[in-house]
Q: What sequence folds into this?
């Protein structure tokens, strides 16, 4: 058996190193160019049909808001077709109900249904409410990831 010959004839090992280095450069270059050309975003752009309803009752505790304001509204909202999830938060003097609908639900039609549900629940709400509940269309992707709240604690000056 004789000695095998390679198609590329280099005089020394440095020739092979140069070939490997050049191939490596081209692979990296094409990889970076291909990665930058990918049409994939970090987060998909999906707009969930979401509506937030708010109601206020001056002087009411969170328990009162949950029992006398949020519960009647939630019962009425639960009859809306295409409702996927409902979350409510009651605090002192106010309640907030977030309604998320299925992706195939038209947001404008859902808003009309929410307005009808609010109108239908008005007779079940406390009579002391200064204004009827309101609603607005929201996009959950526009919500901040982290909120900071600062509060300045003051003390009475020494005399």
A:
């Amino acid at each position: 058996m004789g000695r095998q010959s390679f198609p590329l004839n280099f005089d020394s090992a440095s020739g092979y190193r140069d070939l490997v280095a050049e191939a490596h450069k081209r692979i990296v270059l094409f990889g970076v160019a291909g990665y930058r050309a990918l049409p994939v975003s970090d987060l998909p752009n999906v707009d969930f049909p979401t509506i937030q309803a708010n109601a206020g009752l001056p002087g009411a505790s969170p328990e009162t808001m949950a029992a006398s304001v949020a519960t009647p509204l939630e019962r009425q909202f639960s009859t809306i077709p295409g409702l996927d999830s409902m979350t409510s938060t009651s605090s002192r003097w106010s309640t907030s109900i977030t309604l998320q609908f299925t992706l195939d639900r038209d947001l404008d039609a859902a808003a009309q249904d929410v307005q009808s549900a609010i109108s239908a629940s008005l007779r079940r709400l406390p009579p002391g409410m200064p204004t009827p509940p309101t609603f607005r269309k929201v996009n959950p992707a526009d919500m901040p990831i982290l909120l900071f709240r600062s509060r300045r604690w003051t003390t009475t000056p020494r005399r």
Residues 23 and 29 are 10 Å apart (CA to CA).
